[in-house]
Design goal:
Blueprint (H helix, E strand, L loop, with lengths): L14 E4 L1 H18 L7 E6 L3 H8 L7 E7 L14 E3 L9 E9 L3 H11 L5 E9 L11 E5 L5 E2 L15 E3 L1
Parallel strand pairs: 2-3, 2-5, 5-6, 6-7
Antiparallel strand pairs: 1-9, 3-4, 8-9
Helix pairs in contact: 1-2
The structure holds inosinic acid and magnesium ion.
Length: 180
C-alpha cells in the first residue's frame, strides 16, 4: 500500500518535501543525462554509497541504458565532519577492478561534502579513467566544496528522511522524502 502522509499515524512529525512522483520524474531525467554522457567503451562502473543510496541507485540504474556494472561501498560513519583526510574506513570496499574504467559514485545526499572528499581520492587511487558523482540531494552547506557532476535536487537545510535516508535507521523505506 502506498504511504499516505495524510493518513499515516506518525506523519504528524513530517512534511513531504519531494513526492514520489517528483522523485520518479527527476530520476528518469538523470538517467537520460547519464546515459548520454557515457558510452560502452567507458566500461562504466556505478558504485552506490551504502546505505542511503540504495533506493536511488535501484531506480537510477533502471533509467540508464549505457551498459555498466554495479557495485557498492560502505564507509564508516563519523559524527565529526572535520575529520582529517584518510580517516574514513571502508567497511565494504568495491571488489570490481576500476583500472581504466569510468566510475560513477551514487550518493543520497551531500551535506558538508566531507564524505565525498574522502571517498573520491579512495576511488582515484585505483586508477579509473574518471570519477564522477551523482547525488540525489544537495544541501550546499560548505562553500567551495566539490560540485557533483549531477544533482537531483537542491535540498532544504532541514533533516530529511525517506527514499533511503534515515533517522537512527528509521524511515528509509518511505517512497517520498520528508523533513522531520
Ligand atoms: P557530508 O559528509 O556532511 O556531506 O554528509 C553526507 C552524509 O550524511 C549523507 O550521505 C547522509 O548519510 C548523511 N546526511 C546528511 N544530511 C542528512 C539528512 O538530512 N538526512 C539523512 N542523512 C543525512
Ligand atoms: Mg550517505
Amino acid at each position: 500500500m502506498k504511504e499516505d502522509p495524510a493518513t499515516n499515524p506518525d506523519s504528524a512529525l513530517r512534511e513531504v518535501v519531494f513526492s514520489e512522483e517528483t522523485i520518479r520524474h527527476r530520476v528518469r531525467e538523470l538517467g537520460r543525462e547519464i546515459s548520454r554522457e557515457y558510452s560502452k567503451t567507458d566500461r562504466l562502473v556505478i558504485i552506490g554509497v551504502l546505505k542511503g543510496s540504495f533506493l536511488f541507485m535501484a531506480d537510477l540504474v533502471r533509467a540508464i541504458d549505457t551498459p555498466h556494472e554495479v557495485d557498492f561501498l560502505m564507509a564508516s560513519s563519523y559524527g565529526d565532519a572535520t575529520v582529517s583526510s584518510g580517516d574514513v574506513t571502508l567497511l565494504y570496499d568495491p571488489k570490481t577492478n576500476l583500472e581504466g574504467r569510468a566510475v560513477l559514485l551514487v550518493e543520497d545526499i551531500v551535506d558538508t561534502g566531507a564524505t565525498l572528499s574522502e571517498l573520491i581520492p579512495r576511488m582515484e587511487e585505483r586508477g579509473p579513467s574518471r570519477v564522477d558523482v551523482v547525488t540525489l540531494l544537495h544541501k550546499r552547506l560548505t562553500d567551495g566544496m566539490l560540485e557533483p557532476r549531477w544533482v537531483g535536487f537542491d535540498a532544504p537545510k532541514s533533516f530529511l528522511v525517506g527514499y533511503g535516508l534515515d533517522h537512527a535507521e528509521d524511515f528509509r523505506h518511505l517512497p517520498y522524502i520528508a523533513s522531520l
